[in-house]
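Q: Mind making up any chain with structure tokens?
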Amino acid sequence: MPHTVRQLTKIGVFYDGNYFATVSRFYKYQHDAQAWISIRGLHEFIRCRVAKAERLDYHNCQIIDAHYFRGRFSAQQCVEKGENLLYHERVLDDILMRANVTAHHLPMNAMGKEKGIDVWLALEAFELSIYKHFDVVVLVAGDSDYIPLARKLKTLGIRVMVLGWSISYEINGEPRGTTPSQMLLKEVSYPILMSDVIDGIDTADSDDEKEAVRGLFPPRPDQPQRADEEPSWKSGAIVKLKKGFGFINPGNLFFFYGALIDADFDDLHEGMPVTFQAGIGSKGQPAALKVKTEPDVPPQ
């Protein structure tokens, strides 16, 4: 079916996991955002950008497949290295699972370096593009090694979007950072320099674009609320669940199942971390008017 008459634009997203973790750590520890990049937020941003680039309705642009590729230490290596590596890897697995992202791992080599991940990503992306008929493939990557993949996808009539970051900082006086391959950016249909997008949020073309950029980071409890913004998001946990409603601490705030944004009521459990917007309920009592399940936790 020609693309012009197809109602659904299919998007496939492929993460270079080490690259994504590097830039996410930058925003947590070196940038004013002081927050990890939210995978769910990034997916919403991708849908908005694809809709804009393809001149389509946002609701008709859907991510139907997402894959995350990264090297992984063995269990014994994690124990030897300490730093709760096993715990952090499990946390990341939980994040990816909730965001419907399939994780792919290869063992680190003897030097503790990734080997073959970029090749595996390219092979999977190309094969799945043929099998699932993606209209747009999004690469969260910056390495020139992905240029052959971009060229091959173009032979299938698939548009390629690259999300890259140009960042620089210092750790203990040593310069660090990363810059996406300019050759890769020139090769693809939709190159996006995310560092410029994030830092230039005030120059976004529309309020929808600004909200998409803000959604890249989970809300911070200490962020001041602007007069034109909706109530701030606060962190809490579910303390009690009943049939169709429950209560959140702090404040023992009532919430109705209709307040849930990103989960089904049946998926909730007591003790589950959430973020919420407090307000006044329909009966005049304090309540949580919007509720999200736990924000993204750091990829390590």
Q: What stands out?
A: The chain has two domains: 3-214, 234-293. The first strand starts at residue 9 and ends at 16. The first helix runs from residue 17 to 29.
